[in-house]
Write a structure and sequence with these properties.
elongated; about 160 residues; alpha+beta; 4 helices; three-stranded antiparallel sheet
Length: about 160
């Protein structure tokens, strides 16, 4: 048995929007709780230079996020989830190869449509910190229901 699932290319911009929104929220929090309090500590002359440096740094940071997301989208365009006799494999350009055997597979569906696959032989802390033993599948995957059906039917075998 070998089945391959890919991302629906017509819906890939949803992934881009979700990633940009998440990064925007993080940058907004950093701006509110780190940069603004620092600005308030300076006197008028020093705060002028601080504001100038912010006006240069923030667009540059936005450019870095934009370029990074575009590179990440290149990976998602070539993403393949392969289900075979051994387990689940994730292959994509510029992403590390990941594999979880059926015996160690744990499937978790999220309310936002994401599917998390975990390798139970790797501790949860290690999975979250370095990504080994964790495959995240976006809701934009083709034939999502068929993928879930095969995953649930084969886990733990």
């Amino acid at each position: 048995m070998q089945q391959t699932f890919t991302i629906d290319q017509s819906r890939i911009n949803n992934i881009r929007r979700r990633i940009l929104w998440r990064n925007g929220k993080i940058l907004g929090i950093v701006f509110l709780f780190v940069l603004i309090p620092q600005l308030l500590q300076y006197d008028a002359a020093a705060s002028k230079y601080y504001l100038q440096s912010l006006l240069i740094s923030i667009p540059l940071l936005g450019l870095v996020v934009y370029v990074s997301v575009n590179r990440l989208m290149k990976s998602y365009r070539s993403l393949e989830i392969i289900l075979n006799d051994d387990g689940v494999e994730l292959k994509a350009e510029m992403m590390p190869y990941k594999k979880i055997e059926w015996v160690n597979l744990e499937v978790e569906e999220k309310s936002n449509g994401m599917i998390n696959l975990f390798d139970t032989s790797i501790p949860a802390f290690t999975r979250k910190m370095n990504g080994k033993g964790w495959i995240q599948i976006h809701p934009e995957i083709n034939n999502r229901e068929q993928l879930l059906q095969v995953l649930y039917a084969n886990r733990g075998r």
